[in-house]
Amino acid sequence: MPNRTDLLELEETFRQLFRKAKACWNTFEAEGLTASQALMLQKLDEEGPLKASQLADALWITAGAVTSFSDKLISGGYARRSRPRRTGASFTWRLRTKAAICSV
Q1: pLDDT at residue 46, as a whole number
Q2: Which residue of 4, 7, 18, 37 sits 20 to 30 Å from the alpha carbon of 47, by its own alpha carbon?
Q3: Phi and psi at residue 82, in whole multiples of 5°?
């Protein structure tokens, strides 16, 4: 069973994490981005270019929702959509700038 000191340390760690997450969210919110759009940006930052189906699987949303959410990211200059020239495969989303990304 944890002692009181351990619980106080855990509480302080949680408070710090919460403050960082809130500051990060405020940054996205100030840009007019939704939580799903922010998660898409983070995923692209972590993994690089991804197909809509890959983003959808990672975020537990549909590929259609990825397309819908990405419109604002593309118009805001945060991401871009491209189609591989040689294969003609489905579109790939890429992060355009790292300015909007914050890590907790």
Answers
A1: 85
A2: 18
A3: -140, 155
